[in-house]
């Protein structure tokens, strides 16, 4: 069994009201990742995802690209150990 890792990201740019959370959720589920995505009051988006390092690396490429309507300026990311606390990838409101 491969060891799960966690990424905690803060995504800035035009990432709210442009389907970025939905995009992030769909890509995470496609890759078999678990965690959540949520809008922040400062206009950024927080993403917490867990899975294998290989799949998280693929997911990070999607986060940098963003949805067709978004314009990602920056993705601040931190690697952590996985906690296995999630069972799905959800949008937090």
What gross morphology would you assign? globular
Order of helices and strands: EHEEHEE
CATH topology description: Alpha-Beta Plaits
Number of DSSP helical runs: 2
Structural class assignment: alpha+beta
What is the annotated CATH architecture? 2-Layer Sandwich
What distance separates the N and C termini?
33 Å
Low-confidence stretches: none
SS elements, strand count: 5
Work out the strand percent: 35-45%
Order of strands across the main sheet: 4-1-3-2-5
The description of the largest β-sheet is: 5 strands, mixed
The level 1 CATH classification is Alpha Beta
Radius of gyration over C-alpha positions, nearest whole angstrom: 12 Å
Helix content range of the residues, please? 25-40%
The total number of structural domains is 1
Mean pLDDT: 97
Task: Offer a few descriptive terms.
93 residues, alpha+beta, Alpha-Beta Plaits
Textual characterization of the structure:
Helix content is 26%, strand content 41%. By secondary structure, it is of the alpha+beta class. It has one domain (5-92): Alpha-Beta Plaits (2-Layer Sandwich). The protein has a five-stranded mixed sheet, with helices on one face.
Short note summarizing the structure:
One of its GO terms (molecular function) is acylphosphatase activity. The chain is an alpha+beta fold.
Write the layout of secondary structure elements.
Blueprint lengths: L4 E10 L5 H11 L3 E6 L5 E7 L1 H13 L5 E11 L7 E4 L1
Parallel strand pairs: 2-5
Antiparallel strand pairs: 1-3, 1-4, 2-3
């Amino acid at each position: 069994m491969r060891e799960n890792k966690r990424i905690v990201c803060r995504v800035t740019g035009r990432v709210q009201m442009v389907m970025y959370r939905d995009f992030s959720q769909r890509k995470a589920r496609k890759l078999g990742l678990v965690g959540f995505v949520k809008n922040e009051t400062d206009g950024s988006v927080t993403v917490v995802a867990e899975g294998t390092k290989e799949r998280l690396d693929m997911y990070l490429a999607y986060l940098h690209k963003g949805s067709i309507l978004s314009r990602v300026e920056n993705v601040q990311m931190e690697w952590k150990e996985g906690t296995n606390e999630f069972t799905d990838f959800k949008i937090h409101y």
